[in-house]
Amino acid sequence: LSFVLIPPGVVICVFAREILRRWTHNPSLADNAWPTLSLLAAGSMVYGVSCMISAVQMAEGAVRSMIFVGLLFVGLLVPALILLVHLFNQSGAALAWLVVNIVVLSVSATITLRRYMTGALKTWIAHDIMLPLITSALPAVFMKVFVAGPVGSTSAAVTMMISAVLAVGLSAIVLPEVRTAAFDGASSILTHTRRRSDGNSLK
Predict the structure, then answer these.
(1) Minimal CA–CA distance to 80: which of 60, 107, 102, 112?
(2) Which span out of 20-24, 87-91, 94-98, 197-201 was modeled with the highest average pLDDT?
(3) What is the pLDDT of residues 19-36, one digit of tens each?
(4) Which residues contact 187 (CB under 8 A, 6 or more apart)?
(5) Are 136 and 171 in contact (CB under 8 A)?
């Protein structure tokens, strides 16, 4: 799941202004709203990652933990929205979404993994979170800072697409599960193709 969520989320965060410019064709809107989009994308990415913890809770029948996490989310989100919207307007709402999701994920993962998967917390953080996050952020930030042209230019759009390919590709390389699935899928396709070729040759 982290492979599906983190690389696209990082690219959206880094190229939020370019995405808004291409989508709306409104430079003023893009210049004003890109921080909000970047924060919303980051918060949604964290929320998606938290679904992995929710899956563990459901598998273990941890109803109380799920209720606690839900109440914690609501209890933090409402005051965070009131405070941060007052301070930062629309970006404050997006910032509240990000901060609350990070806090809830941290608490939920710590409680759940320590209770049901002893010793898995550090491995999960390093392998499933930090590894794809770093391998996605490095090429995206590098391309944005050193390669991308002015916002709205063709070179900026091409750079964004290349960054997305690099982020997904590098994450696929460093994550063993993704590599294994890719190799198994390729082997299955090759085997099926060979069988069809052999069958056609016999005919």
Answers:
(1) 102
(2) 94-98
(3) 999 999 899 999 999 999
(4) none
(5) yes
Q: Which three-class secondary structure string do you get for 1-39?
A: CHHHHHHHHHHHHHCHHHHHHHHHCCHHHHHHHHHHHHH
Model pLDDT for residues 135-146, shown as the tens digit of each residue: 999 999 999 999
The tokens for 15 are 């190229």
Question: pTM score, two decimals?
Answer: 0.86
- Phi, psi for 106 (deg, rounded to 5): -60, -45
Q: How far is CA 131 from CA 154, 159, 176, in A?
A: 31, 23, 11
